[in-house]
Write a structure and sequence with these properties.
By secondary structure, the protein is an alpha+beta fold. It is built from 9 helices and 5 strands, in the order αββαβαααααββαα. It has a 5-stranded mixed beta sheet with strand order 1-3-2-4-5. Strand 4 and strand 5 form a beta hairpin. Helix 3 packs antiparallel against helix 4, helix 3 packs parallel to helix 5 and helix 4 packs across helix 5.
Length: 197
């Protein structure tokens, strides 16, 4: 009983608050994904290329959408990333999970956490007790509410992205957004953009 009240007192940093990149970046890229998915792993590589290409112009956030019917280990992997995030290690864990997507058993997750420098001695018990389960579930429910059924699924500045998942296709959407932001002082391009929307 005491353990449950203790778990309720833990203030968890939710995935929606974990971003990488410049906070003032004109482009906010959000990906809903699953750590066991090949397509999501490939999409993550594309995202890493985009972050390198656009440096301070793109900020990225990863939201959890484990497809538990086909990927039994995706939920715990997502929880492990949230656990790592509590020590500021979300991104190293995120990339580690995608790199090891075929080996996401609970004991492996503990090993990855240790490898990236997570020091919480209760990492494994917290995973077993699903301490971070609700954080993952909140992402999943939010995604489902938006109509997401499959992943990877992207949003660029709040708009659903429907194009192919490759650097060139993303660049076609991102480039104009980075240019528009530079011209905020000039009124015409902004008005023109509003008419199209």
């Amino acid at each position: 009983m005491a353990q449950h009240s203790k778990a309720a007192e833990i203030e968890i940093i939710p995935p929606k608050d974990i971003w990488v990149g410049n906070t003032k970046a004109p482009v906010k890229l959000v990906m809903y994904g699953d750590y066991e998915s090949e397509a999501c792993a490939k999409a993550n590589e594309v995202v890493n290329e985009l972050l390198e290409k656009y440096e301070d112009k793109v900020q990225f956030n990863f939201r959890h959408f484990p497809l538990t019917r086909i990927h039994q280990r995706a939920q715990k992997a997502a929880e492990a990333s949230v656990a790592a995030a509590q020590e500021g290690k979300f991104w190293p864990m995120h990339n580690m999970l995608f790199a090891n997507r075929r080996n996401l058993g609970t004991i492996s997750l503990k090993g990855y956490a240790k490898e990236i420098g997570v020091t919480d001695k209760n990492f494994l018990p917290k995973l077993v007790d699903s301490v971070f389960g609700w954080s993952v579930r909140a992402d999943l429910l939010e995604g489902a509410d938006k109509g997401i059924r499959d992943v990877p699924f992207f949003y660029i500045n709040g708009e659903a992205y429907k194009g192919p998942v490759n650097v060139n296709a993303f660049s076609k959407v991102i480039d104009p957004l980075t240019k528009t932001m530079k011209k905020v002082g000039a009124k015409t391009p902004v008005k023109a953009a509003k008419k199209r929307a």
